[in-house]
Write a structure and sequence with these properties.
CATH class of chain B: Mainly Alpha
Keywords (chain B): Cell membrane, Membrane, Transmembrane, Transmembrane helix, Transport
Structural class of chain B: mainly alpha
Strand content of chain B: under 5%
Order of helices and strands of chain B: HHHHHHHHHHHHH
Radius of gyration of chain B: 22 Å
Membrane topology (chain B): Multi-pass membrane protein
Number of strands of chain B: 0
CATH superfamily of chain B: MetI-like
Helix content of chain B: over 70%
CATH class of the largest domain in chain A: Alpha Beta
Number of domains of chain A: 2
Oligomer: heterodimer
Number of domains of chain B: 1
CATH architecture of chain B: Orthogonal Bundle
Radius of gyration of chain A: 29 Å
Structural class of chain A: alpha/beta
Organism (chain B): Arthrobacter sulfonylureivorans
CATH architecture of the largest domain in chain A: 3-Layer(aba) Sandwich
Number of helices of chain A: 18
Strand order of the largest sheet of chain A: 6-7-8-3-9-10
InterPro entries (chain B): MetI-like, MetI-like_sf
Strand content of chain A: 15-25%
Helix content of chain A: 25-40%
Number of strands of chain A: 16
Shape of chain B: globular
Largest sheet of chain B: none
Protein name (chain B): ABC transporter permease subunit
Largest interface: A-B, 38 and 31 residues
CATH superfamily of the largest domain in chain A: P-loop containing nucleotide triphosphate hydrolases
Distance between the termini of chain B: 75 Å
Number of helices of chain B: 13
Distance between the termini of chain A: 46 Å
Chain lengths: 435, 295
C-alpha cells in the first residue's frame, strides 16, 4: 500500500432502507437510483477515490447528493453497504466495534456543521474531549487543549461555555477539539456552512494556514463551489449519489466533465480560483539583457511589438523595454540595454489570483509579466487573456491574435533603416541572444 | 340477533393472581419487608425529632433550591399543618411518597433509557404505560391488597405503578431530544455507547428527566388518599375517616395538608430541574441568555 495515500475509498455504496444489499446488486448491474428506490434510498453509489496524505480533498455537491453520507462512511458513523474504506492502512469495514473506536480516537477526527459542542461543558473541556476519550489524565489534556485553543485563536476562552461564544468561535472550538485528537485525518462536514460569509472567509483562510503548518489530511464537505475552489487541492463533485468528476479546481473549471459540472461552475467567482499561472501565455517578446539594444530592437521588429521583456541568461526577469527607448539607445550607439529597462509594471507571481490582476492590467500598456518563486519569467498575461479567462472562453489564444496594445510599434521600415544605419560601426559579437 | 356471550376475563385474572400468589409468595414477602422497612425508618426519621427541627430542615432545603421566599412559605405551611394537628399524618404520607417516588424513579429512568435506545423497546413500553396510567388507580389496590396484605405496602405499590409513567416518558423524550450531532460527535471521537449515555445524553436530557420526576412526585401525592383506603394511614387515612364520618372540617384540614406538601415538593423539584439545565441547550448562533449563570 502506498504510504502517500491517507484514505482510500473503493467502490463504496451506501443504501438506506429495507433491502440495501439487493439494491446494491441492482445498482451494480446498471440500474439507476430511481429504479431501485423501492428497495431503499441509494445515498452513495460506487464512490472511489484516494486522498493523499497532506492534501485538502473537497467533496462538493448540493444537498441530497450524498456527500454527508459519504463522509460518514469514512469514519464508520454510517457503515457502507458495499465496498471498502481504508483509513491509514486499516479497512474499517472489517474490524470490530472496539477497534473502530480506536481508529476514530487515533486516526480520524471530525468537525461538524452545527459544531456539535457539548453545551454542558466548558470550551476547554470540549476541546479536550477527544483526549478524555483516549484516557489522557485531566491536567495533561487541559494543558494540551489550551495549546490547541491558542492555535485556533481562542486563548483565554477555555473557561467559557459554548453558548457564550459566537458561531465562528464555536466552530473554532469544534476545530480545536478535532485538532486536539492529533489524528492525521480531519473530516469536515460543511464545517463553515453555518457561519456568515465574512467569518467563513476568515475560517477558510485560517484552515489553509493551519493545514500548511500541521500537514493534516483534510476531507472537506461543502455545497459552496467557491469554498471548494478556495480550499481544495482536489475536488470531487457529487450528484445524486455519484461522483461525477474528481480534479483540481483548475481542471473542474476549465474542463468540466459534463454539463452538470459545467453548469455548476458557471457561477463560480473565477477570478478567485484561477491564478496568473493558470491563464498565462508563453512570453514571445523576450530579450536577453546581455544581447544588447540592437538585438532587442530586431526582436521587437520581427514580432511586430512595441515592447519586450528583458531577462538575463537564467531567465530572471529584469523589466520591460519600449521600442522607442531602445531605438534611441541604438541611435546613440549605447552598448548596454539596461539603460532602457523600465520597472513600471509587475511582475506578478504565478500564484496570484486573477482578481488581483485587473488593476495592474488596466495600468499597464503591455502584457503583465508572470514570474515564478525564483523571479524567472514564466509567461505573460495580455488583457485579452484576462478577459477570456473570465468569460470561460477557451484560454488557448493561439488563433486569437494578441493585440499588444498601444503604443503602436514603430513602422518596420524605420526600425530597419536605423538598424542598417548603425550596423557598420557596432561590433555585435553576441547576437542571437533572443529567446 | 342478540349477541350473547361472556368472556371470563375476570376469572382468568383471579386464576392468574392465585397462581402468582402461590408461586411467588416468597418474593412478595421479601418486597413487603423491604418496602415496610424503608417506610418505617423514613417515618421514624421524620416523626422522632421535634416538628420544629424538621420544619427548619425543610425550609433550608427550600432556601437552597429556590430562595428565601419559598423557605418562608415552607415554614408557614408546615407550621399550619402542625397547627391543625396533622403533623404526624403528614409525615407518614411524606414518607410514603418518598419511598414510592424513589422506587418509581429507579424503575422508570432505566426504562426510559431503554425506550430511547431502541424503537422496539419503545413500541412495547408505550402501551404498557398507557395501561398503567389510565386504569383506575383503585383497581391496583385489590391485587396489591391480596399480595401484600392491608397496610402501607399495597399503598406504596399502587402509588409506584400509577406514578411511574411520566418518569419513563420524560426520560425517553429527553434522551431522544438530545442534539443528534452532539451524540454523533461522541461516536466520531471514539466514545463507547455507555460513555455517551453518561457524559452526553443524560446530562443534556437532565432538565426533561427532572420535569418527569416532578410529575412522578405529583402523581404519587395524588395517590396518597387512595392509599389511605387500604390502611396506609397518613393524611389519606384522615380523609377516608372524615368521609366515613361526614366530617367536613377534618377532611378540609387533611386535604390542606396534602396541598401544602404538594406545593413544597413541586417547587423544590422544579427548581432542582431548572438548576440542572446545562450551559445553554440552544444551538449555536442563538443568543445565550441563561449561560451567564453558569459562567
Amino acid at each position: 500500500m502506498n504510504e502517500q495515500i491517507a484514505l482510500s475509498v473503493q467502490n463504496v455504496y451506501k443504501v438506506f432502507g429495507k433491502r440495501p444489499a439487493e439494491a446494491v446488486k441492482r445498482l451494480k448491474a446498471g440500474k439507476t437510483r430511481e429504479e431501485v428506490s423501492a428497495l431503499g434510498t441509494a445515498a452513495v453509489i460506487d464512490a472511489s477515490f484516494d486522498v493523499r496524505a497532506g492534501e485538502i480533498f473537497v467533496v462538493m455537491g448540493l444537498s441530497g447528493s450524498g456527500k454527508s453520507t459519504l463522509i460518514r462512511t469514512l469514519n464508520g458513523l454510517q457503515p457502507q453497504t458495499a465496498g471498502s474504506v481504508v483509513v491509514g492502512g486499516t479497512d474499517i469495514s472489517t474490524i470490530s466495534d472496539g477497534e473502530l473506536r480506536k481508529v476514530r480516537q487515533q486516526k480520524i477526527s471530525m468537525v461538524f456543521q452545527h459544531f456539535a459542542l457539548m453545551p454542558h461543558r466548558t470550551v476547554a473541556d470540549n476541546a479536550a474531549y477527544a483526549l478524555e476519550v483516549q484516557g489522557v489524565a485531566k491536567a495533561e489534556r487541559l494543558a494540551r487543549a489550551e495549546k490547541v485553543l491558542k492555535l485556533v485563536g481562542l486563548e483565554g476562552w477555555g473557561d467559557k461555555f459554548p453558548a457564550e461564544l459566537s458561531g465562528g468561535m464555536q466552530q473554532r472550538v469544534g476545530l480545536a477539539r478535532a485538532l486536539c485528537a492529533e489524528t492525521d485525518i480531519l473530516l469536515m462536514d460543511e464545517a463553515f456552512s453555518a457561519l456568515d460569509p465574512l467569518i467563513r472567509r476568515e475560517m477558510q483562510e485560517q484552515l489553509v494556514a493551519l493545514q500548511a503548518d500541521l500537514g493534516k489530511t483534510i476531507v472537506f464537505i461543502t455545497h459552496d463551489l467557491n469554498e471548494a475552489m478556495f480550499l481544495g487541492d482536489r475536488i470531487a463533485v457529487m450528484r445524486d449519489g455519484r461522483i461525477v468528476q474528481i480534479g483540481t479546481p483548475d481542471d473542474i473549471l476549465t474542463h468540466p466533465a459534463n454539463d452538470y459540472v459545467a453548469q455548476f461552475v458557471q457561477d463560480v467567482d473565477r477570478t478567485r480560483v484561477l491564478t496568473a499561472g493558470s491563464v498565462m501565455e508563453p512570453a514571445r517578446a523576450v530579450v536577453n539583457l546581455s544581447g544588447g539594444p540592437r538585438n532587442a530592437l530586431r526582436t521587437m521588429r520581427d514580432l511586430q511589438t512595441s515592447a519586450a521583456f528583458v531577462v538575463d541568461r537564467r531567465r530572471t526577469f529584469f523589466g520591460t523595454v519600449r521600442d522607442r527607448d531602445v531605438m534611441h539607445l541604438v541611435e546613440s550607439r549605447a552598448p548596454d540595454l539596461a539603460a532602457a529597462v523600465r520597472n513600471g509594471n509587475g511582475p506578478v507571481r504565478a500564484e496570484t489570483p486573477l482578481s488581483e490582476l485587473f488593476g495592474l492590467a488596466v495600468e499597464s500598456p503591455i502584457p503583465l509579466p508572470v514570474v515564478d518563486d525564483e523571479g524567472r519569467l514564466v509567461g505573460v498575461i495580455p488583457r485579452v487573456t484576462l478577459l477570456a479567462a473570465l468569460g470561460n472562453v477557451p484560454s488557448s489564444t493561439t488563433d486569437i491574435p494578441i493585440v499588444e496594445s498601444a503604443p503602436a510599434p514603430i513602422p518596420e521600415q524605420e526600425v530597419t533603416r536605423t538598424l542598417n544605419k548603425t550596423s557598420m560601426d557596432v561590433t555585435t559579437s553576441a547576437e542571437g541572444g533572443t529567446r | 340477533m342478540d349477541l350473547e356471550f361472556r368472556i371470563p376475563l375476570g376469572d382468568w385474572v383471579d386464576v392468574a393472581l392465585d397462581w402468582l400468589l402461590a408461586t411467588f409468595a416468597g418474593v412478595f414477602a421479601f418486597i413487603r419487608s423491604v418496602f415496610l422497612g424503608a417506610y418505617d425508618s423514613l417515618e421514624w426519621l421524620l416523626i422522632t425529632p421535634p416538628s420544629l427541627v424538621i420544619i427548619i430542615v425543610f425550609a433550608a432545603i427550600a432556601y437552597a433550591a429556590k430562595g428565601w421566599k419559598l423557605a418562608l412559605g415552607t415554614a408557614v405551611g408546615f407550621l399550619l399543618i402542625v397547627g391543625v394537628n396533622q403533623w404526624d399524618h403528614a409525615m407518614e404520607s411524606f414518607a410514603l411518597v418518598i419511598v414510592a417516588t424513589v422506587v418509581a424513579i429507579v424503575i422508570s429512568v432505566p426504562a426510559g433509557i431503554l425506550a430511547a435506545s431502541s424503537a422496539t423497546a419503545s413500541a412495547i413500553i408505550r402501551p404498557i404505560l398507557d395501561f398503567m396510567q389510565t386504569m383506575p388507580a383503585m383497581v391496583y389496590l385489590i391485587p396489591a391488597l391480596v399480595m401484600f396484605r392491608v397496610g402501607v405496602v399495597p399503598g406504596i405499590i399502587a402509588t409506584i405503578i400509577f406514578s411511574m409513567a411520566p418518569g419513563v416518558r420524560f426520560t425517553e423524550l429527553g434522551i431522544r431530544g438530545v442534539d443528534k450531532e452532539v451524540v454523533e460527535a461522541g461516536y466520531a471521537f471514539g466514545s463507547s455507547p455507555g460513555s455517551i449515555l453518561r457524559k452526553i445524553q443524560l446530562p443534556l436530557a437532565m432538565p426533561t428527566i427532572m420535569a418527569g420526576i416532578n410529575q412522578v412526585i405529583m402523581l404519587a401525592l395524588s395517590m396518597v388518599v387512595i392509599a389511605g383506603m387500604v390502611g396506609a394511614g397518613g393524611l389519606g387515612g384522615e380523609v377516608v375517616a372524615s368521609l366515613n364520618r361526614i366530617d367536613a372540617g377534618l377532611g378540609f384540614e387533611a386535604g390542606l395538608a396534602v396541598v401544602i406538601l404538594a406545593i413544597f415538593l413541586d417547587r423544590v423539584t422544579a427548581s432542582v430541574g431548572k438548576a440542572s439545565r446545562p450551559g445553554g441547550r440552544q444551538r449555536a448562533g442563538r443568543p445565550a441568555k441563561q449561560s451567564l449563570q453558569n459562567a
